């Protein structure tokens, strides 16, 4: 039994990993048992990460071309959402700093694309502050979705503590349900 009020032991971790491994080893068994329950809902969690302003594919560190890019992700996101409309789409940070296009728009284009693709939330990465606090505030104001950051503090207030809905940091939440 896992104990939320104390540190996990190695044995607790191995029990959890073993349980997860069992379900992964027998996906048809897990799928069959889920199909037996009419009230079971399959939720897909989709995420992008470290886009760094790349809309189009780019080269990797070895110079190999045609990697990544939000345009490629968009096609896949649409396909997966058609397969399962019960999907959650989140970006996990480092959204807009890294390309000339993003630099020229100060990241606005990436946030606009997230809005267009109807992301459910995006998480603040360390590179969101590379162009200063004003650029970050502009991104917050432009975003139509919640922004997540559990470890962000402004003027001594943690994320989610701004009661004035007009304050740009009011959009930052430690979590959403």
Regions with little confidence, pLDDT below 50 for 5+ residues: none
Beta strands, count: 7
Structural class: alpha/beta
Give the SSE order as H and E letters: HHEHEHHEHEEEE
Short synopsis of the structure:
This protein has 177 residues and is α/β, with parallel strands linked by helices.
Describe the structure.
The chain has 177 residues and is of the alpha/beta class. Helices cover 37% and strands 12% of the residues. It has helices at residues 10-25, 27-36, 70-83, 100-105, 108-116, 133-142, and strands at residues 44-48, 87-91, 121-123, 147-148, 153-154, 157-158, 172-173. Strands 1-2-3-4-7 form a five-stranded parallel beta sheet, with helices on one face. Strands 5-6 form a two-stranded antiparallel sheet. 19% of the residues are buried. The mean pLDDT is 85.
């Amino acid at each position: 039994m896992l104990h939320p009020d104390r540190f996990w032991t190695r044995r607790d971790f191995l029990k959890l990993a073993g349980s997860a491994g069992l379900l992964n080893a027998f996906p048809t068994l897990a799928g069959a048992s889920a199909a037996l329950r009419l009230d079971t809902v399959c939720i897909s969690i989709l995420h992008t990460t470290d886009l760094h302003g790349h809309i189009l594919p780019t080269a990797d560190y070895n110079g190999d071309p045609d990697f990544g890019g939000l345009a490629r992700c968009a096609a896949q996101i649409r396909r997966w959402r058609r397969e399962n409309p019960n999907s959650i789409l989140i970006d996990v940070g480092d959204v807009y700093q890294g390309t000339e296009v993003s630099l020229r728009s100060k990241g606005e284009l990436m946030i606009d694309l997230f809005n267009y693709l109807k992301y459910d939330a995006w998480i603040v990465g360390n590179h969101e502050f590379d162009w200063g606090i004003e650029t970050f505030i502009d991104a917050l104001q432009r975003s139509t979705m919640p922004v997540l950051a559990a470890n962000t503090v402004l003027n001594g207030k943690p994320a989610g503590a701004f009661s004035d809905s007009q304050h740009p940091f009011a959009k930052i939440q430690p979590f959403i349900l």
